[in-house]
Inverse folding.
């Protein structure tokens, strides 16, 4: 997922500085990654885990769920780290879904030796340039949400993800549309981003492979309020399905306007459409819309229900799309650090040690997903799931086989 704004390099640094000083305040850290002066090899001090996600703007619903999931994980690990002599802290950074801001934030995080891991970014288009900085400083990142194929194809040792890639989500979405929903003709709309266009391209390739007729493949500009031009084309083509490679902030408007123009066929998108704000943007027009996701529903088990109830009680909000995957991503990093502290005789590990240990993660059982990273940093246990919007909530329909 990627959203560009027009920031100059200087303003990006200034905004990032403001973010570090006071943006994204949390009960855990106050939002400021201040160094304790405790370098690697020291006994005791601070250990900071950062998050990078949009905490303001159109994608803040997603960004907050990422940050809050990590905060919940850290809250549960504080006492264990305290027993080891370390104060565990969270540094939530607002990358504004903007690549320049993400890089600026990354540079500031790198200057603090207490920062030993990053959960994020939310958007693939932000992670790719920021990961260059992380690689230079051996600062590990684990993303719960980046599906863009390119991210883990660049050979970086610090880049990992626990979710499935577009080249898994896209084909499975297309196959489900054809085999389960009976789609024979489709019109694809994407938002021209690394996420939206990348996912739509994978769907398109699978449709063409399976003999589903692609009647159109058109891009939109993010943030517009009237999508009549592209939707008029789509409705006139009379497809069985309109596929949306877009984020909910645009997707909700597209769904509403498509239905108002009389389209009665199937509407499907990817995990970018999974947000409670879809009801605010599309109203009752969202009912019946399908979306695939690389994150499953944690409430499908009794243990998962207890986790979700505990999350809501402690964090004051219901878990959203990336809450549990962010929780699991944080715990992958925390388990590696905790193990290294014990192996180091109680001393703080280096960033290089943490990055190496995280990449070696094998058969880690998170709250929802199991994690084993391959040599690229992709999770061998990643799956794709299907949901459908109901009258007032989304309905989990299971894993796509």
């Amino acid at each position: 997922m990627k959203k560009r704004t027009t920031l100059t390099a200087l303003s990006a640094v200034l905004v990032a500085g403001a973010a570090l000083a006071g943006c994204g305040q949390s009960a855990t850290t106050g939002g400021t990654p201040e160094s304790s002066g405790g370098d690697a090899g020291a006994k005791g001090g601070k250990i900071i885990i950062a998050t990078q996600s949009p905490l303001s703007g159109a994608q803040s619903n997603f960004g907050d769920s990422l940050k809050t999931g990590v905060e919940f994980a850290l809250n549960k690990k504080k006492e264990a780290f305290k027993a080891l002599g370390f104060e565990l802290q969270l540094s939530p950074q607002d990358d504004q879904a903007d690549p320049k801001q993400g890089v600026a934030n990354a540079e500031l995080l790198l200057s603090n030796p207490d920062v030993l891991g990053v959960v994020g970014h939310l958007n693939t288009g932000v992670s790719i340039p920021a990961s260059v900085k992380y690689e230079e400083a051996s600062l590990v990142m684990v993303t719960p949400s980046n599906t863009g194929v390119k991210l883990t194809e660049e050979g970086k040792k610090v880049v990992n993800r626990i979710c499935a890639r577009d080249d898994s989500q896209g084909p499975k979405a297309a196959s489900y549309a054809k085999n389960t929903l009976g789609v024979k003709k489709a019109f694809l709309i994407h938002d021209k981003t690394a996420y939206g266009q990348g996912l739509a391209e994978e769907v398109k390739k699978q449709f063409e492979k399976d003999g589903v007729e692609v009647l159109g493949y058109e891009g939109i500009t993010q943030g517009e309020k009237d999508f009549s031009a592209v939707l008029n084309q789509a409705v006139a083509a009379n497809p069985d399905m309109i596929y949306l490679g877009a984020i909910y902030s645009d997707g909700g408007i597209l769904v509403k306007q498509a239905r108002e123009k009389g389209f009665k066929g199937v509407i499907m998108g990817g995990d970018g459409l999974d947000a409670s704000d879809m009801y605010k943007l599309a109203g009752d027009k969202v009912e019946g819309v399908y979306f695939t996701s690389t994150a499953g529903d944690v409430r499908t088990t009794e243990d998962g229900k207890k986790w979700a109830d505990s999350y809501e009680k402690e964090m004051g909000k219901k878990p959203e799309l990336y809450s549990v995957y962010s929780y699991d991503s944080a715990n992958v990093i925390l388990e590696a650090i905790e193990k290294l502290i014990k192996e180091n005789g109680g001393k703080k590990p280096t960033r290089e040690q943490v990055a190496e240990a995280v990449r070696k993660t094998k058969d880690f059982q998170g709250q929802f997903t199991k994690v084993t990273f391959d040599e690229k940093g992709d999770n061998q246990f990643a799956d794709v799931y299907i949901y459908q919007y109901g009258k007032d909530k989304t309905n989990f329909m299971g894993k796509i086989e």
